[in-house]
Amino acid sequence: MQADxxxxxxxxxxxxxxxxxxxxxxxxxxxxxxxxxxxxxxVAADATQETFVRSFRGLGRYKEQNVFKSWLFRIARNEGxxxxxxxxxxxxxxxxxxxxxxxxxxxxxxxxxxxxRQMSAVLIKALSTLSEDERQVVHLRLKExxxxxxxxxxxxxxxxxxxxxxxxxxxxxxQLMVKER
Length: 181
Hints:
The chain is mainly alpha-helical. It has two domains: about 90 residues, Rna Polymerase Sigma Factor, Chain: A (Orthogonal Bundle); about 90 residues, Orthogonal Bundle (Arc Repressor Mutant, subunit A). It is built from eight helices and no strands. α1 packs across α2 and α5 packs across α8.
């Protein structure tokens, strides 16, 4: 796999193949993040497309000392928030019964035992009680394996705020999981 920096340099020089490789490398992660954020496949697809359009238009402004993945996720988050405002379809952040499709356990794996399904349902319910910012920090940290410094950059907040949101989310999730067992 070619390093991002090499591909970015080539893409900046107009190499469409390098830009396409970068797109393919990150499209699933960006789409998954935006799907969880918006709860709507069409909005997530639109936001993903617009994220890459904006990122490649702004590639000349990208500074190589930044982590490309973090820079891209920041654009994605901003685009997701913009489209949510535009469509007025904010994801559910309170403990209501209806949940975005992206947070439902719609495809249990073969041989999954009853206890695991119950635990998944409890976890999904617990995640739905977190604030949008807390859910995003959990996703970026656990699913995307980003550092808290990168998460703080993506979410445009101080490092302490990012770590504090994760701490609060973990505390809430632990309390709810223990209560539901």
